[in-house]
Structure formats: C-alpha cells, structure tokens
Amino acid sequence: MVDVIALGEPLVQFNSFTSGPLRFVNYFEKHIAGSELNFCIAVIRNHLSCGLIARVGNDEFGRNIIEYSRAQGIDTTYIKVDKESFTGIYFIQRGYPIPMKSELVYYRRGSAGSRLSPEDVDEKYIKSARLIHSTGITLAISDSAKEAVIKAFELAESRSLDTNIRPKLWSSLEKARETILSILKKYDIEVLITDPDDTKILLDVTDPDDAYRKYKELGVKVLLYKLGAKGAMAYKDSVKAFKEGYKVQVEDPTGAGDAMAGTFVSLYLQGKDVEYSLAHGIAASTLVITVRGDNELTPTTEDAERFLNEFKT
Amino acid sequence: MVDVIALGEPLVQFNSFTSGPLRFVNYFEKHIAGSELNFCIAVIRNHLSCGLIARVGNDEFGRNIIEYSRAQGIDTTYIKVDKESFTGIYFIQRGYPIPMKSELVYYRRGSAGSRLSPEDVDEKYIKSARLIHSTGITLAISDSAKEAVIKAFELAESRSLDTNIRPKLWSSLEKARETILSILKKYDIEVLITDPDDTKILLDVTDPDDAYRKYKELGVKVLLYKLGAKGAMAYKDSVKAFKEGYKVQVEDPTGAGDAMAGTFVSLYLQGKDVEYSLAHGIAASTLVITVRGDNELTPTTEDAERFLNEFKT
Amino acid sequence: MVDVIALGEPLVQFNSFTSGPLRFVNYFEKHIAGSELNFCIAVIRNHLSCGLIARVGNDEFGRNIIEYSRAQGIDTTYIKVDKESFTGIYFIQRGYPIPMKSELVYYRRGSAGSRLSPEDVDEKYIKSARLIHSTGITLAISDSAKEAVIKAFELAESRSLDTNIRPKLWSSLEKARETILSILKKYDIEVLITDPDDTKILLDVTDPDDAYRKYKELGVKVLLYKLGAKGAMAYKDSVKAFKEGYKVQVEDPTGAGDAMAGTFVSLYLQGKDVEYSLAHGIAASTLVITVRGDNELTPTTEDAERFLNEFKT
Amino acid sequence: MVDVIALGEPLVQFNSFTSGPLRFVNYFEKHIAGSELNFCIAVIRNHLSCGLIARVGNDEFGRNIIEYSRAQGIDTTYIKVDKESFTGIYFIQRGYPIPMKSELVYYRRGSAGSRLSPEDVDEKYIKSARLIHSTGITLAISDSAKEAVIKAFELAESRSLDTNIRPKLWSSLEKARETILSILKKYDIEVLITDPDDTKILLDVTDPDDAYRKYKELGVKVLLYKLGAKGAMAYKDSVKAFKEGYKVQVEDPTGAGDAMAGTFVSLYLQGKDVEYSLAHGIAASTLVITVRGDNELTPTTEDAERFLNEFKT
Amino acid sequence: MVDVIALGEPLVQFNSFTSGPLRFVNYFEKHIAGSELNFCIAVIRNHLSCGLIARVGNDEFGRNIIEYSRAQGIDTTYIKVDKESFTGIYFIQRGYPIPMKSELVYYRRGSAGSRLSPEDVDEKYIKSARLIHSTGITLAISDSAKEAVIKAFELAESRSLDTNIRPKLWSSLEKARETILSILKKYDIEVLITDPDDTKILLDVTDPDDAYRKYKELGVKVLLYKLGAKGAMAYKDSVKAFKEGYKVQVEDPTGAGDAMAGTFVSLYLQGKDVEYSLAHGIAASTLVITVRGDNELTPTTEDAERFLNEFKT
Amino acid sequence: MVDVIALGEPLVQFNSFTSGPLRFVNYFEKHIAGSELNFCIAVIRNHLSCGLIARVGNDEFGRNIIEYSRAQGIDTTYIKVDKESFTGIYFIQRGYPIPMKSELVYYRRGSAGSRLSPEDVDEKYIKSARLIHSTGITLAISDSAKEAVIKAFELAESRSLDTNIRPKLWSSLEKARETILSILKKYDIEVLITDPDDTKILLDVTDPDDAYRKYKELGVKVLLYKLGAKGAMAYKDSVKAFKEGYKVQVEDPTGAGDAMAGTFVSLYLQGKDVEYSLAHGIAASTLVITVRGDNELTPTTEDAERFLNEFKT
C-alpha cells in the first residue's frame, strides 16, 4: 500500500542527441518518461511511496518501463502488461524552431497505455492511498483511460490533477475544456496544477488571482500555478506564494512541470507549507530542464535544500 | 521517366547503437530504409534510374525520407506527403537472442506509407518504365497498398517481386500465401526474389530446383533464390547459377536481401547474365551486412567488381 | 531555371565534437557548408528556388556535397565534378581562445572549388535568374573564381554580395579592399551584406549610417549591416531598421551570417519590407549559432515567424 | 523468500569504449556487474527468484547497484548500505595484449562490498532458500566475507560454488587453494563450477574426468567444467555431457562464466537434465561475450531455446 | 632544471558525459588532472618550465599521467612509478544538485600519489628552481606527502601555496587549519592562493582586505584571492587589484582555480604586475570552466591576451 | 642521441567512426600516425630509443603530432615546425568497397611534412644512431624529402627501408621503381621490408625466394617479406622463417606493416634471431588491425610475448 497513486501512460522517450529538426538528428538517447511516471518519481524522491496504475505492451519497451519504474522505487504492482497492444513512445525535437523549447512527436495512438481502463483500478489499492493523481493527458488518450481516472477519483480520499492540455491529444480544445471542467466540478481537488495557457482554455482567464478564485469556486483547495521560465505561484486559503525561476542553461524543458508537481504535492502531503513546497518544486523543475531526460535530476528533499541554499544563478 | 519503379513504404529506421535487448540500448542511430527504397538505391548504384511510388507523413521523418531519397538519386515525384497520417518507423534489436541476427519492432500500423493506394499509381509513369517492382511487404501493409501494386502490375511492361513474407505484417501465413500466389498466377513475373522459408509457405517446397520448377509453372522467368549466409542461386531458362556467401563480420543483416535484389534486377535489365548479376548481388548483400543501415554500402557496379576481384575472405 | 543563383565553393566541415584547441579534440562531426551553399539553403527555406554554380572533386566529399545539396533542394545542375582536384574541407575549433567564437582551419588551397572559372557560368542559366549572389570568399580563392563571379555579375539582372573578408584567404587586406571595391564600383548591387570590420577595411568607416551613405554612392540599393551578437541593421532608401540579437546558448557561430543573408535576400526578393526581412534574418542567424552545422537550423519562413512570436530570451 | 541466494560483491564496471591499453581509451561505458550479481540475473532469467546478500557504499554507485538489481528482479532486501566505505568499481581493458580477452583493473580494496560479514547473513532467509551460491572471489576479498560464506553454507540446504580464482585478489595461489579446498571438504557442494586452470591450482589435475573424480570424492554432486571458447562439460553421477562453444564475434568475455553458471544452476534446480542445462548455459555465455556488459544479454529460458534452435555459427 | 616545481598527486579524471547523478550517467570521458599538474600546465603555457614531483602506480593510468605530462611539457623526471600502489582516480558528477557545479568522488585513499614522501624530494632539483608550489590537497593526503612539501619548502628559494581545503580529504577542518597555518607560520610564502571559504576556516575572516592583512602578517607577499564566478582579487604591497569574472556557459568548474593560480604565478615570476597577472588568471579560469577537462583550455599568454582583447560577454 | 632514427612525414589521421563510403560517415576519430612515426613507436615499445626527423606545420595538428610523439617517447628534437606550410592529414574509409580493407584520402600535397629537406638532417645526430630508417613514402612525397633520406643514408652506419609504394603518391609506378631501386643499388640495406605487390613493381617477381635472392644481390642483408593476412616471412643468410597470420576481427589494417617493421627491426638490432623478431612483428601487426589507430596497440616486447603464448585464434 502506498501514499500516492498516479494513473497515466508511461512512455519511452527518444531524445535528440543534437538540437534541431529531427531529420538532421543522427542519434537518439532513450529515456523513460510520461507525465504521471515523472510525478511518481518526484513523490518518491521526497520520501513518500508511490504506485503507478498503467498499461504497457508485451515488448522490450514495456519491460524497460517496468524495470526503470521498479528501479526508481515506484510500486509497479498495477502496471499491467497488455498483450493486445504496443508500448507508446515519443521523440523530442529540441531547440527548433524555438531555442530552449522542445516539440514532441508521439507514436502512442492505440498504444497499450491508452487502453488503461476502469478494470485496472483496484478499489482497495485506491482506498489505501492518501492521494490519487492524474493529468489531462490521461483524460485525453482514450475514453477508457478517462473512465479509469473517474473511477479512481470517485474512490479517492483526496486528489491532485495536472491539467496538462496537449492539443495534439485532443480532438478539440473545446473537448479538453469540457472534459477537465466536468472533473473539476464533480470532484474536490486537493491540489490543482495548471498554468495560464490551460487556464485560458478552461476558464478564459490567465491572471493568477482570477484563476485561483475561479478554481476555488470549483472546489480546488490548493493551486500550483506554473509560469514557465518566470517561476510559479501557489495559493492555499489566504496564502499566496511566488517563487521566481532560476536562470540556467536549458537542454530540454520536457518534464519540468511534472517534477514540480510531484515535488510540491509530496511535500504538501507531508505538511510542509506552500512556500516551502513551491520552492522545492522550482528547484526540481530547474534541475530537470538542464538535461535530456524528464526525471533523472528530480532532487530529493535534501538535495533540493542544498540547491536552494547554494545555487546562485 | 525512369527505368525502374518500385512501390512500397519507406521507413525511418532506428538502429541500436549497441547489441542486445532494446531495453538495454541507450542510443539509437537513425537510417532511412524500407525494402523498396533499398531496392531503388541498388538499382541506381548500378546505373539505371529508379522512382519510388509511396506516401510519407507530413512530418520531419517524412521530409527525411524524401530528402534522403532525392540525395541518393531516386525520382521522388511520386512520393506523396499524406497529411492524414504519420511516417512509419521501426527499431532494430541486434544480436539478441540470435547473434548476427536482428529483430524488427515496427511503429507503422496506420502509417501514411500503408495508405498507399491505386490513386497514387500514375498510368503514364508506370508505362514509361521498363520494370515495376514490389514486395510481399507492400502486399501486406494494407488493402489499398495491395491494390496499388495490382494496378501497377496490371499496367507494367515487366515486373519483379520479392516475396518478403514478414509474419508480423500478415494476419496469417495463409493470407500471405493466398495473396502472393494470386499475384504470381495473375501476372508474369520477370524476376522473382524469394528464399526457402517463403517458398515453404507459398509452395510447400524448399529445394531450389523444385522451387524453380514450380515458380516457372506460375510464369516466373528468372528466379533469385536467397540462401542467407550460404549465398544465393539464380535460375533462368536452363541456366542455374550458385554463388557462395562471403564470411564477414556481421553488424546487421537487415536490408541485405533488398540490396541483392536491386543489384540483380538492375544488372539483369542491362543484359548481364545471371552469373554476373548474382555475383554482384552477393557482393552487395555482403557489404550491407557489415554495417548498420540498409543501403549506404550498396556498391556501384564498379565497386562490386573491385570487391569480387579483391576480397579474400 | 531558378530564382536565385549563387557562385562559390561548397566545403565539407569537420566540427569539433568538444570545445577547445583542435589537438585536444578526439571526435569531429561532419557537416556540409560553404558560405554560398548556406545562403542557397536559406533562400530555399524561404520558398524561392536556388542553384549553386560550383566545382567539387571526384571523391566521396564531393559526392557528399552534391547529395546534400540535392536533398536540401538546391539545383545542382551546375555543380561540376572536377577530376583534376580534390574537394575543399575545413575544421572548426570552437570556444578557444574566445568562448562562443570559432576558428576555421582550411584545407582548400588548390581545391576543385577554387578552380571555379568563367567557363562554368552558363549565360542562359544566369539570365533566367532574378538575382546572382556571391561573396568575398569566392573573390579570394582564385583568379578564375573571381572571373566567374565577374562574368555572372556582368550577365545578371540583379546582384547580392556578402563582403565576407577572410584574411587567411587573401594575400593582403589591401588586395581584398581593391578587389571588392572594384566589384562594387563596376556593378550595381541590389543587396550588400557586410559588417563594421569589413567596412573598416573597404571604406575606412564603421558607423552604420556612414557606411550606408558610402555604399549607396557605390550603387548599393539595400544594405544589410551585421553587428554580431548585437543584432543587425538594414537600410533601403530612407528606411533604416535595427533588430536586436537574441541571447541564446552559443554552440558555433559559423554560418550565422550566411543564414541571415540568404533569408533576408529571399524575403526581400519576394517583396517583404526590410524590417520583416531583417527580423527573419535575425531569427535565422540566432537558430544557427545554437548548434554545430551551418544550415540545418535555418528556418522556413513559417518557422521563423513562430520563433519571432514565441521566443522570449 | 527466494529460491536462490548468492553472497558476493556487486561492482560498477567501466568498460572501455574502444579496445586497447586503458591509457588510450577516451570513453568508458558504465555497467553493473560482479560475479554473484551476474549469477543472480541468470537465475532470474530462467524463472527462479534470487536474492543477493551484499554491501554497497552510501554513494551514487551503491545506489546504482541497488536500483539495477531491483530492476532486474533481484531481491535487494539484504543489500546493505555500509556508510563506512565506498562502492567497489573496476575498469575493463579489452583486446590488449590478447585479442578477444579482457584485463580487469580493480578499485575495490577496502570497499563496502569487501566488508560483507556474517552479521549480514540472516538465518531465516538462508534457510528458506533452496540453494546458496558463492564464488572464490567472495572467499578472497576479506576474512569477514569468507566467514559470511561459511555461515551461509553452514545453514544452507544446498550449495553451489564457482571457484573463480582471481590471482590479483589472493595473497598467494596457495592461500586460494587452501581456502577453497577447506570449503569443499567441509560442505557438500550440489554444483561446483570450475575450469582447468583453477582445478590445476586446487587439485593439480586438468583432465575433466580426473577432475570430476576428485571433486566427487570431496562431495561435489554436479560438476560444471568450463573450457573457455571450446565449450563446457557437465558431470552428474554417470552422466558426462559436452557442449561445444559457438564461434561468435567477441566483444568482451567478462561475465560469460557467471551467466553459464547461473543458467545451469537455475535449470538444474528446476529438474532439467545436465545436457539441457549445459546447452542453455553455453547459449548464455555465448551471448554475453558478444557485448560489453556482463548480464544484459543473459537469455531467458525461452530465448536460449530460440538461440539453440536457430543459431548457425 | 626548471623554473617552477610543484609537488602533488596527479590523478585520472572520469568526467560525466551527461549531467546529473552519477548513477544515471552511462559514459565517462577520461582526462588527466590533479591540482598541481593543472598548475604546472598553466605555468608552461605562460612560457616558464615546470616539473612535477609525484608518484603514480605501475599501471596504465600511471603511464597515462606520465605520457600526458610529458606531452604538455612538464618535466617528468621526478614522477616516480611506485610499484606498491595504484594510481589515484576520481569521478566528476556535474550539475547535480547544483547547476554549473561539480561534485568529486575520489578513489585515491592509499594511492601511489598519496605515498609521496620526503625521499622523493631531490635537494639539488629543488634548489635550482625559482619557486616551489604545492596545495592544501598534498598536505592532506598523507603525512609523508605533507613532509615532502615541508622538505621542499625548507629548501626552496621561494614558495607558492594554494590552500585548497577539500573537506573530504581531511579528518577535520581543525586539522586542516592547524596544518596549513603551521606552514604559513614557518615559511614565507611568495604567493598565497586562497578564497573566502578557506580563509574563514584558517583565519575566521572572509573580507578580502582583512584576509590580506592577516596573511601578510604571516609572511605572505602576494595574495591571490579567488571569488568564484564573481572574479578574483590580488594584493601585493599597496596594490589591490580586482578583476570581474566573465559570464560564460559553464560545463565544469573543476580546475579553474588551478589554471588561475598557475597563470598568475608564472606571469608574476616573469615580472608582470598583479593586474596583468590577475587578468590573465581570470582568462584562464574562464576558459577552463567552459569544458570538461581541467587544463586543456588553459591559454598561452598570447591566447589569453586575445581573449582579454576580444571577448565580449 | 638515440638508437634508431626515422625520416618521414607524421600525419593526423581521421578515422571513420562507422564503416562505409566517407559520405555516409558522420563522425571521425582523430589519431596520430604516419608510417615512420608508427615505426618509431614500435622501436620504442621494444626498448630501443628512437628519434624522428620531420616537419610539421605551425598549427594545432602540428602541435598534436609533437605532443603525441613526445608522450610516446619519441625524440622530437628534430621535428621542425615549418611556418611556411600546414600539417598533412588524411581520412580513412573503412570496409568499403572491400570488407576489412581501408582506403586513404590524403590532404598532404605541399604539406610541411613534404618539405622535409637535407638541411633537416644533422650529421652528428645521424652518425650517433645505430640504424636509419625510411620508407618509399618519404621518397615519394617530394624531391627534397627524397634528398633528405639520401643524405641520411649516406651518413648512416646501417639502414632499413620499407618500400611502401603508395601509387597515389607517385607520378608513375615506373618512377617509384626507379627511385627505390637506385637507393637499393647505392646503399647496403640492413633490413628491407617489402611485400609481393611492391616486389612485383621493383623486380618483377613475387615468389619470396626469388625476391630474397634478387634483393640480396642488391645488398640487402635481411628481408622482411609481408604476406598480408597470410602472415610474413623473414630471410637472413641461410635462415628462412615463416610465421602465419592470426585470424582476428579486423577494424582497420592501416599501420599494421609499420608496427611489424618497427618491432622486427628493433628486436633484430638487439640481437634476436629472425624467427623471434618475426613472431613479435606478427603479434604487433595482428593487434594493430583490431582497432582504429595505427600505433596505440603496438605491443611491448613483454606484451607480445604474452600474446604469442596465450592467444589461441
């Protein structure tokens, strides 16, 4: 039994060894990723236990995901090997056409991971956890995956959600808005992780205070509001915290938000205040963007502490 | 207008930088491949012109295929960018569980390449060519692709076919047998490229002489019969040629058969006898297996000549 | 027939895999470059057609240049294989002794490329183009190459010239000054690309306004004045535009000026105003300096647009 | 509780990226290895469970060993983090001065792994297992490690031992002989793994039949006698099996014997006969020597089966 | 006979090919380093001769150090091959948990280098040199190494010392303080190289002026006071110089201080004033941090001059 | 003063990281080579001292050659930096069109190395040596280089010559024949190193016995007759020795002959008999062909001994 459970699709990532359009890249570096898997690793680095409910294909990439997850301490009991489909993968194009930004090319349609379904959600497992996490990605990849999240949220003691709207995965932004809003309306969300772009889609506002007010009305208790390179904000009751981003050499920003989210939620669950949790979240996202790979540099609580004490940008 | 036209799906290949199960491979090397594309390059290295009828996605990998094809001299006029789907790719696992053998992991279901259809086959273009080539792979990837081959064969002056049965691409071997046999029955094949495994499936024989006799009855004029590391045979009328394989350090055998086929067909079309064409085909396949990449080492006629004169195994 | 034609020497570039003095570099990464080839690719990415008049050796590096050019859409009809000489190459030492700067080590004296001569310049081809481009490099590498430029400029409808004074290629700066000035005096230049260092040599001024006034007197219509990391200026008639450079992580600045020049000229030829053309030129040069390789990241018009809209430094 | 338990020192391996004297090697590839860890992975690939009793340092390399072991399915409950010392490592020099052979350079004296001691051996854990395995390496690295093996062997239901005499680790060969012989005399060994070199030291014979007779007198039930590239033999009661080695391209022979031993013991424990177990052991060692890394290519039972059916050398 | 002699332990460095915790690093790049060896190379690049008194093991890594030193022009006459022990090595973890900072993992306890002893110090050799250099590292690694430094300082005409307190190498900071202070009290130091952290430990002050006053009382003639990314200060008599650090892309700061120290001391010995020597020292340290490797980019006097003239941050 | 002196051009080698036509190679690995430099290293590995008389350019590659030579123990006193020209380089294409063979692409015409001249040959230095070595390459690269060899041979106590006819470097084979024969006629050669191809050109025979008889008539005392993969023969007086080649995995045969020659000559000079010297020469050439790089794996006398005792092909 674990403290936190996430539902989502773990993926194999092929990161460009050199920057630029993929057609000019000769070598690709393999990493294991996926928003919820990244989140789990951040939770664990901050000393809570975490399980992932997911499906992978009966293939080398699926085995790779399970072995990596196990190595990183994720409870893999509920990562199911689905013999009917393949493991989802994606490629990362870095630095083109926007320096320090990445573009993702997915090969995940119909993947084992997208076949996640309510039958994969074990009631007892869910009920034993302190918090259930998922993201807008899982809501987007298939109806059955969305239903799995709904079943888990239904049974959950508390919930966190990262809106994570990836336009490529939704038939329309309207569909994204509708789906995510219906979740927000139906379930009290302990921690909502989002940003101005997603909030624009969902609530047609971008200002952080407006966003918090509106999300609060929808039952959100704590808001983690990511501002990209500028940093992030966190709201809880009357507390409003802001932590500026650090200036570092960016290799690949992919996964930074997940590291921040998992770190924040893990510390928050352990009773840390939002300022502390936010600062650690920023430390995590800052480290993650300095390298290829989404979760290898997610710091432990102690290492984030060192970062926050010693790093002068 | 070109001498030879091939129909098939060009793919981006991600070849393992190190041998072994894919989950232990950290780096992948990108190459451009696909059986018919490999065939075209062999045709061109032997100084005939060649065009490829195919579809790729509207993405970096699609652009990569077109640019590489153009670089290698393939006529890309009929490589269509299909905005409805993605470019097919595959991974190569080398040396496990069989040393010197490779296993392919495809991400091509529903790809742009598999959406090849009769509408992509331009009558005038086909009629202007001396020979139309395709493979069992194109027959397997979709009904529309199969129909495209049939349309082209219907219009063709002469035809070559590589049976190339990839069990992963067929719903059943029975289906493969039926489809390929119906083609063989319907059209006179100038050059058939096959091997004992495929012939076992198609005709339930493996012995080369038996195979030739049976294929001949089906209208095959020339048979190129590949025997793996042992070498290959070629039959035409009363001529029966055998060329032993060379012993070299194997890096990846993928693509060797295509290089042999394209070389053989190109030389045969230029009036070379089967012994000569076969020897050059063996030179081509021998070089290709010494490296990652399916077509970079396919030799020109002159370089194959040097190989045949100078290489002492 | 193409919109733009450039005359110059394409080269194979061996870029240091790690920074520092070449003697400490263990691996070199091959790229295809050369100022005019880089220019052509920028022209094409901005949707005009472009041909390169050049010579390469009858060797693998020559074939590499032709194949790469063809892949990138350059009209290679007038890239001649010169059996009398070898293909020119160069090495790039990065980051020493000046961080973020590169030093070039040429092996091009007597190369096929430097044997470019007036006989390579086809009158009909030149006359069919809207603009002929060359650089101070081509003027420097040999008398016959200089004569080729002069013949082409003589026949041209309009001309662009990048002064590009590389002291290593000239017997003296005086010689460079004299040669380039004589061209400027003899031919109306539609677009002159230069910078304060070259202008100091040519006209003994560095101030942009002074430079423009003097170049204008010499018949230059549009001036693109590159200011390195600071950005660039463009002058046309009474319009004076300045675009600040973006701050990015510099890998190798080589080729940035060519990308800017080709982008600017291509857009200008399509009727874009100088501000637009300049901004796109800056986008191109900014992307190019973030990687090894001179032209792979040169953006399309659309991608530069995205860059200009989305990139926050 | 697990089927098999091994005691020994897991190590981080730095394998030369290129062959030759270490001073000419610029890059090193990290792997996780150690004779007993390799053995465990072979046991697991053949579908028994396996635990490793060991110590690692409180450092990144120690964490690396634990994470990798966990990923590969090893029970890591008894891998203790010893804060008093560091994790042992070694470098592999390949192909010099003997082609296809490797030399090991250890940095393990005083390592955490060598501090393994009887207190690390949990009686209940040992008694629950079907077989306890160790090697001459563990007997050599320290007195406390030797005592740990003795304690475990004392409590064990059955035992396997790989003599594995590494002269660098012993003060003298005499000491090695004495120590190992005393173990052989004191405990019945279910499976002894050894070779002519070690047997020469231990019993002053090298002939397989002589060796088996003498080992049998010492209470050995099954003998796995490794003959390097020639293959291996196995003896049990009156059965004497020989399996010839396969000719493959050798990258690094390190770890081949461990893969063979673990495979053989795992299958033998599952009731397979010695011929079957031996053949699978040879398949395992053959695959392992084709790559850098000691255990990544150790095949599953099913994959070894494919190897044995399909591999033609 | 040489101008400068340094005493210390040369080491083989294994630098992470990618940033992050060592357990996630797959490839390591070998360099030759060690504080005093780095110092020597800086001395030589500034055109004085330099010898290193040291021990290495009788192994490939020892040979590597000697060959590299010889290549770089270090007098290796007194680098002794000690057959009793091994060559010390270390790993560099980059960018975690602090971006742009590195952590060192040593395998040097009991190494040949730490066995440096007074018997290695040749009186005539020492007396022939203009300056003897060592660091707090050599004072820390063993009593015999400390005694070697004392013997050399006793015989020296003049001395430079870099305090270089590495907590991992000292039993306690108190021990470090005591040892270094006793050296400072006993010998007049021509040039002391230190920083606020070390000065805090030694004198319980950090302010540069305070530090200089106190060090001066202890007989220090010239003080080079390193301020990390901020730059450095130098004091001599009434001269107080400050040179700001340059902003560059940091790959690995290891070795920067040694390059600065060796450059400063070499130029100072040649009669350059402290401003000049300091500026060159900053140029050296700036270049060194842009790459992996401690000394490859240490500039010659002329190259530093170019840097100082041309580099605009 | 040294035992052996060689005259020739050291070169920087850029070896293909992957096999195949150079245009498909993306990365190149730098090595230091040149026939006479390789020879020198072999001499030194076998414990005689050796100096190289040569010129390099005043550039990074020239410095690279000097530093590497110094590292490997070559006396570099007479490697002159020639400011008038550049350092010669070459590329190696491996495995195409002949597997296991390499093709060299030179950029050395007019190089500093080819400007070697009699003025570089110091009489005292030459006279102090026991043997002067050069090759047909040095005789081919320029008249002044040839004259340098003649001057050195004139002054020499004894001489060795490797015929090493590289057709690309000679205007005609006739010229090669004439030049080398005139040397053979004019000077007694202590050791001649050659092979059937060169002997065919020189004497129009290939049979070893015939060759020896004819060379002997020309004053050759000892003949080392290389037979490629088959092995080599050596003749002295009435002794005729043959040593078969070993079968190993070939990476790049370049430099194998130089390693054999230097090893043979060095041992012969130390009084070893031809069988012993030949066997060690074969050990050296066998090791060299297993890697990229011409001299890194050239074994010491002791390591060759181990090879000869332990290597079972």
From TrEMBL, chains A, B, C, D, E, F:
Residues 4-300 form the Carbohydrate kinase PfkB domain. It comes from the Archaea. Pathway: Carbohydrate acid metabolism; 2-dehydro-3-deoxy-D-gluconate degradation; D-glyceraldehyde 3-phosphate and pyruvate from 2-dehydro-3-deoxy-D-gluconate: step 1/2. One of its GO terms (molecular function) is ATP binding. Keywords: ATP-binding, Carbohydrate metabolism, Kinase, Nucleotide-binding, Transferase. Belongs to the carbohydrate kinase PfkB family. This is 2-keto-3-deoxygluconokinase.
